[in-house]
Specification:
Largest sheet: 3 strands, antiparallel
Distance between the termini: 51 Å
Oligomer: single chain
Helix content: 25-40%
Number of strands: 7
Order of helices and strands: HHEEHEEEEHHEHHH
Strand content: 15-25%
Shape: globular
Number of helices: 8
Radius of gyration: 19 Å
Number of domains: 1
Strand order of the largest sheet: 3-4-5
Length: 206
């Protein structure tokens, strides 16, 4: 005898079917209030040494475990149903990009974004670091520095700070500001005045 689903059970089934692909969130994103206090603690000064920046000064991607490098590790961490080959390359899965709300089913459509871009970090204090410190920064899985996002959105962001670029998905800007501030605070990087003003405004959307 065929059983009929109750309205509640049917709603649960529909929710499961219609729900967007699950996505992981990078760790250690502070609350808005904590982010605000950390932003207040950051040194405010103009960026410097930008002309001496070279991406090669931040070695990445490095091997994290077995045959998996940093990019592949983030793709596995932040994707849903990710299948990899023997070399750790993702052959299938889905990735939700929080910057624009798009979901992708090919890893080639996904970039791993440095929340605080390498050039921005350099001009905010990383020019004085050792190569080992810059390598640790460029491959940092312990905080909200690395995000799996739509490739052309990442390319549009480039090296811009929040005074120059913000995620097209406005509802994500609170989280974006909290993550940006955490990275700058943890790595003891400075902010410039326009950047601080933009971050403050973004926190006010939380």
């Amino acid at each position: 005898m065929r059983r009929l689903l109750s309205a509640g059970a049917l709603a649960v089934v529909l929710t499961i079917v219609l729900a967007p692909a699950a996505s992981a969130t990078p760790p250690n994103i502070p609350s808005a209030s904590t982010a605000a206090s950390r932003l207040a603690a950051l040194t405010v000064r103009a960026e410097s040494n930008h002309s001496s920046y070279n991406r090669d000064l931040f070695p990445h991607w490095i091997t994290i475990s077995g045959t998996c490098n940093t990019r592949e590790t983030v793709l596995k961490r932040d994707g849903s149903g990710v299948v990899t080959d023997s070399g750790c390359a993702a052959t299938s899965g889905s990735w939700y990009s929080p910057y624009d709300g798009a979901t992708w089913r090919a890893a080639s459509d996904v970039d791993i974004d440095h929340m605080v871009p390498l050039a921005e970090a350099w001009s905010s204090g990383a020019y004085a670091w050792t190569t080992s410190q810059r390598q640790s920064y460029a491959n940092d899985l312990g905080g909200p520095e690395l995000w799996a996002v739509t490739d052309n959105v990442n390319q549009a962001k480039g090296d811009k700070d929040p005074a120059e670029w913000q995620p097209p998905l406005a509802s994500f800007r609170c989280t974006y500001a909290r993550a940006w501030i955490q990275v700058k605070w943890y790595w003891n990087l400075s902010v410039d005045s326009a950047e601080k003003s933009a971050l403050t405004a973004m926190l006010n959307t939380c």
